[in-house]
């Protein structure tokens, strides 16, 4: 069985050589493994006028009306006064390459399909959804994710590149960060709780789901802060609203979490916590040990100073949360309902690294829906 492919440069050279030797279409086709009609179409499509007719009364040569359609192998082409055609390999290849690209250009959708696509992407971006989530969550969208980005980059959709939160390059970061900075308490003994200790600890527990903890930067005039707990394996995030953050508030928060979940479920969800050196996290003993049973409920480790890359997952999650909590904007006036909707929205987005599932679905698969409901309700009732 013959396998038909596009003609390449080498096959076109064979065609040109066969024309000079006056080969028939069927003979050429056998040499390049194609149908004789493909040879005829190739010659008709890519022939070029090499000489205009001098004899105006009878300008057309009958040989150019049938195979081979060109004058490459003609014996009297230098004496002929009729219109002549020539098959040039380089020109034919260049034209074929152009057709191959141009035939795939444009939008392969009907007007109605394109309008539906345009509206759904626009509505999704307004709702702070990713392109991946929009495409995966709408079965009636027939294009791929890369095609959607291509349409946006070419300006074919109402949604523009600037509307995508992470598509536009960030400006160079300013060195002055006083608006969000904190002062580390260097008198705290963090022996056995450094980042190297963390790496040593998880080496013997490779299947452990670590939680990364951080505060989302807020302006100094705010009394409220947003605490984020991220489970990198699941891309799952929990948002806690904390008023006047300090170590006592952190102790209270984790104590209430233990009461809510029970000590066993608490250990399952938060076995290890990796965080930065914010003063609010300095009293690690009150986070690690249960005030009810006195047993160890989690292990706390600290990143090195100015090494936010060591907890890159929670930093990336904070960057995504900026869609709901913009920089230099106060969060004091935000309602608990808005906080809850933002948390549910960020966990409902489908992502490629979870095979198209959402972090919420992944969390339910691992820990169950009952624990998820408890955490959601707690996240937005705790003050």
Secondary structure layout:
Blueprint: H1 9-20, H2 25-32, H3 36-46, E1 47-51, E2 84-87, H4 89-102, H5 111-126, H6 131-136, H7 145-153, H8 195-203, E3 210-216, E4 224-231, E5 236-243, H9 247-261, H10 263-269, E6 272-275, H11 284-288, E7 299-302, H12 312-321, H13 336-348, H14 359-367, H15 369-379
Parallel strand pairs: 3-6, 6-7
Antiparallel strand pairs: 1-2, 3-4, 4-5
Quick overview:
The protein has 15 helices and 7 strands.
Structure description:
With 383 residues, the chain is α/β, with parallel strands linked by helices. The protein folds into 3 domains: 9-102, no CATH class; 111-163, no CATH class; 195-379, 2-Layer Sandwich (Nucleotidyltransferase, domain 5), CATH 3.30.420.10. Helices cover 40% and strands 10% of the residues. The protein contains 15 helices and 7 strands. The strands form 2 sheets. The chain has a 5-stranded mixed sheet with strand order 5-4-3-6-7. Strand 3 and strand 4 (224-231) form a beta hairpin. Helix 1 runs antiparallel to helix 4 (89-102) and helix 14 (359-367) crosses helix 15. The model has no long low-confidence stretch (mean pLDDT 86).
